[in-house]
Write a sequence for this structure.
């Protein structure tokens, strides 16, 4: 999923939103520009932006799918993408991750206090972009409401994800609820806001939001599968890498409930750091027990739900096909 | 400034906004309730809320001052107060402060990762309250725009405050710009949103927002003066306590620019931790040099600006007098 050239106007709005003002606040905006891949740590221009842009693409395609023009969804797409980027700044601090997209995570350059605050600044900037939407005030109010709801769900999802790390017992339903919020909510908002900005009724927007939600859940489960059984040459990570990091991803949650695999995996998760060999062996045992297959089946169910939402309503053929193609690409991606 | 009984409906909205839903997300809402003073760390009900409620009071008085009814500004007042509370959750982590209003700071109970995320959740919840405002969609759009602008300024102010800690040289103008954002912006939003929700034109709301901004700056400078020369029996802190914490408050910024005091104070700030005696002696030297007097004069200038904004336009007499009284109380408070 390379950045789509149609996202250029979204990136333009993002650049304007985070432009330094030429005064004592500039350091903050330079940091945000670094996080977004626009500059090097010492402030020289760069073009290292590696985000795939799935969220803004869904937002713009949803607008086109309901007959909206190209520009209607641009501010909403920028707001959603900047919100995703804000959440990454905080996630990296919360998870202690020192790298992001192959570069130093922002907080490792700024220190933790400025890292938290830079995220807060980007969150505020992100939301303020919605006001640029070329829509009537009552539609704008709906964009704000959908957006705010997504932000609350996003934080609830991160609460659950962090809590699962230390939870004794997590069910597959708990897990799906978590990723529906953590990954699904912003993709649902991308589709729902795009549709509303493009002129859709709340009802049609709700349908496209369900598409986005299901796409997000499918995406995350596929990510979990790649985190355990991805081809090391494609993902750049060894087999079982998520086990080494003790992640409670969907396959792990499913395996922990298995009477055979569960106790062994629990031992691995509660003992000293799993070695690469431990992790690889556990991933292999899980695969033999059918855990990989059943995780893929769950992801495919969500992919099918996403596609069904597209087919159940009158949408423009071209954008509808592209939205369906996104589901296919999510299911087939190998890194 | 004890909580005003007229704030009861605001607290009601806040309680509903942060109510647990009865599912796996509840831990998050219990933590937020703890931070807000509604429960003990182990979840038993408490009534320890010690916030003074200046922001929501300004918001509601601004609405009444322009002829709005009692309920119009309630959602905006709740949004502003919850936003202030979100910022305190993150400030405590950023500053490493382990207590807040005499209780354990939230992050010391939850750990840093959940602390950051709890703040993010409260930020999203805060903003979503604006949607409850009983106003026309075009006014609602203006509330969102003013609110988002204030949130960006708030984060810019915190950026500057954190940056000043390590800056070689800070001017009084730099400092005023910082507190205008860090303390002024939310009070400006409180007044501006209250006025708009109460039916004021954007122009009248801008005037009341300038009142709020000036009140916020005066409040912060008075806070700085109390942090150096407050009566220990009233503030609970020794004379010069802000110097022990190496805070670059307004009097310190002014003293650092003084050819006589500056070098001595700089030594104190760049050496090992100042002792209580060092701090007291420095505060006394600053007072003899007239720094206290000039800081109070600057605060009084901002207080006068706030009052002038009230007098320059047609407002209802009762609320106008109360808004003016708030300025007087800020200038005369001793803890």
């Amino acid at each position: 999923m390379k950045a789509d050239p149609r996202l250029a106007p979204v990136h333009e709005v993002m650049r304007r939103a985070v432009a330094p003002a030429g005064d004592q606040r500039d350091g903050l905006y330079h940091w945000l520009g670094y996080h977004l891949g626009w500059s090097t740590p010492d402030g020289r221009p760069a073009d290292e932006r590696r985000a795939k842009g799935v969220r803004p693409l869904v937002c713009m395609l949803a607008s086109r799918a309901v007959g909206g023009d190209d520009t209607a969804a641009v501010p909403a797409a920028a707001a959603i993408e900047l919100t995703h980027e804000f959440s990454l700044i905080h996630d990296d601090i919360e998870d202690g991750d020192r790298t992001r997209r192959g570069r130093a995570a922002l907080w490792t350059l700024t220190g933790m206090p400025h890292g938290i605050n830079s995220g807060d600044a980007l969150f505020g900037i992100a939301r303020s972009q919605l006001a640029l939407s070329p829509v009537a005030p009552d539609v704008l109010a709906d964009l704000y409401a959908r957006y705010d709801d997504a932000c609350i769900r996003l934080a609830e999802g991160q609460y659950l994800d962090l809590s699962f790390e230390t939870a004794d017992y997590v069910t597959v339903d708990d897990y799906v609820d978590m990723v529906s919020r953590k990954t699904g909510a912003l993709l649902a908002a991308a589709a729902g806001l795009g549709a509303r900005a493009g002129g859709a009724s709340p009802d049609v927007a709700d349908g496209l939001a369900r598409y986005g939600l299901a796409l997000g859940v499918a995406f995350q489960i596929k990510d979990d599968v790649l985190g355990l059984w991805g081809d090391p040459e494609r993902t750049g990570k060894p087999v079982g890498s998520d086990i080494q990091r003790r992640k409670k991803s969907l396959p792990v949650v499913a395996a922990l409930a298995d009477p055979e695999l569960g106790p062994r995996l629990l031992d691995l998760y509660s003992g000293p750091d799993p070695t690469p060999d431990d992790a690889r062996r556990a991933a292999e045992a899980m695969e033999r027990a059918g855990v990989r297959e059943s995780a893929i089946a769950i992801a495919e169910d969500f992919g099918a739900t996403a596609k069904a939402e597209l087919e159940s309503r009158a949408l423009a053929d071209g954008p509808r096909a592209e939205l369906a193609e996104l589901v296919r690409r999510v299911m087939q991606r190998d890194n």
